[in-house]
Amino acid sequence: MDAIRWSPEELKLLDQTKLPHQQVWETYAEATSIADAIRAMKVRGAPAIGAAGAFAVAIEARRLAGQPDMRERLERAITVLHDARPTAVNLAWALNLMRQLIDETSDEALPVILYNKALQIAEEDVKTNHAIGDYGAQLFNRPTRILTHCNTGALATVGYGTALGIIRSLHHQGKLQHVYVDETRPYLQGARLTAYELADEGIPFDIITDSMAGHFMQQGVVDAVIVGADRVARNGDTANKIGTYTLAVLAHHHEVPFYVAAPMSTIDLDTEKGEDIPIEQRNMEEVTHIFGQAIAPEGATALHPAFDVTPGGLITGIVTERGVVSAPYESTLRSLKNGEANE
Ligand code: MRU
């Protein structure tokens, strides 16, 4: 399963707003239209929007090749892409890598050099996710019941997935008993996307509404919670899909291990703590309506923070492609970034 396909001239995105009932691929040949697709969540998931942003810059460089104001226009395109979604640091991370290359490269070489970099980001993401899957699967030694939130799978990355990558690896190793899939209001990434990926692979699951998680933990049928991340601050505070914090508090209360799976590109040592992470506020219609259908009285207002922050203190371990770390995150994350630690 994949949701992003590329060539030097075009990016193809599987429109995730239409899944699971329609599989519609759209073709993009300009950075600003890719920024629109990121904003509209046609492509979503931290690693996926990072890769899409990188390809957008490469495609834009080819489109503008030979124009005298190419560099200014490329810089403007990067700003538009950067502002499309503020919480997931992978987008800013990928755009920064592209920006650094632009500074070092001649006009003539830019399209090829930028495309090769985007390709590298995309290909490395898949390898990274397999490594996260392997490290995460080592945390369990018997058939396990996992609760997950949002979609962190092949659709949210370039392939395989992070938290869902661990679930895939557990399944391949015969160590997965069941997955509880949080529906994930309001965009329904769990019910629409994670369920779609798990069904496709024959992995046993049930969808639960977000409000059922506490009930199932109380019943003792959840062995661990595994979620993804959009940004991990220096102290381990982790921004992820709205509802994640609630799960972490519930898991703590019920003494259920709570793991975050994230590539190193999601770990942002420049952000000191959770309060410093910008939280995207989305349109209230995404809460008051489902698939364009109003579910609230006309004129009712709603709030829609798209992410929340789970304090590092509630996180049992962070699973990365370099290994699993636990608190104190300030030192363990820094060692990981320096390539030192492997638990
Ligand atoms: O708003 P979304 O769907 O982009 O949010 C996605 C998440 O919160 C994921 O958990 C996170 O990006 C990690 S995806 C591997």
From TrEMBL:
Give yes or no: UniProt keyword Amino-acid biosynthesis: yes
- Give the catalysed reaction(s), semicolon-separated: 5-(methylsulfanyl)-alpha-D-ribose 1-phosphate = 5-(methylsulfanyl)-D-ribulose 1-phosphate
Enzyme superclass (EC): isomerase
InterPro entries the record matches: IF-2B-related, IF-M1Pi, IF_2B-like_C, Initiation_fac_2B_a/b/d, M1Pi_N, NagB/RpiA_transferase-like
- Name the Gene3D superfamilies for this protein: translation initiation factor eif-2b, domain 1 (1.20.120.420), Translation initiation factor eif-2b, domain 2 (3.40.50.10470)
Residues annotated as catalytic? D230 (proton donor)
Q: A single Pfam family, by name?
A: IF-2B
Function recorded in the entry: Catalyzes the interconversion of methylthioribose-1-phosphate (MTR-1-P) into methylthioribulose-1-phosphate (MTRu-1-P).
What protein does this entry describe?
Answer: Methylthioribose-1-phosphate isomerase
